Known about the structure:
Elements: E1 2-3, E2 18-24, H1 25-34, E3 36-38, E4 50-57, E5 59-60, E6 69-75, H2 76-82, E7 83-84, E8 89-97, E9 100-107, E10 118-121, H3 123-126, E11 129-132, H4 138-151, E12 155-158
Parallel strand pairs: 11-12
Antiparallel strand pairs: 1-5, 2-6, 3-10, 4-9, 6-11, 7-10, 8-9
Amino acid sequence: MKRLKRHGDGDAPGGTLTVVRALAFVEFIELLEFSHLRFDPPTHGSTSTLVGSQEWKRQIEDETAQPGSVYVCTTLDALHHAVLAPEHAELKIDMPSESRVRLRTLSRRRPPAAEQPCVRVDLQALIRRVLVPASAPAHLFDLVRHVVMTRLWVEVGRVPSGR
Length: 163
């Protein structure tokens, strides 16, 4: 496991905590193209006001890194500023454990069931760095670096191998 470092020296406790989310390549391109993050929908038949949720982690687990994944790195503070709550909903960010950060969207009214839950984001404020697994082919790394550099000017690197 790779523990991520704190990013900078912010005033808010935990605000500068680095967090990461693994995205499938297609979902990553969708994030860059449409500026939205997909949420995991609530369980079928749920009667709560939960529209969707999403888990971010404080570390990258080498054992579970998929070669086609792309890791978006940000800070807890950036999540608060970059993620925009949908209309008629509020965004909640909490830390259910030392290793996870959870985003949840709670609706003030029942959302349509057919919609893919997602939230709009400010890409410039959200993405601090992008990482590609060490096991990913070189052409995938080059493609990710090219796409990121045409849209954002952030670092693209490889996940350091733990072996």
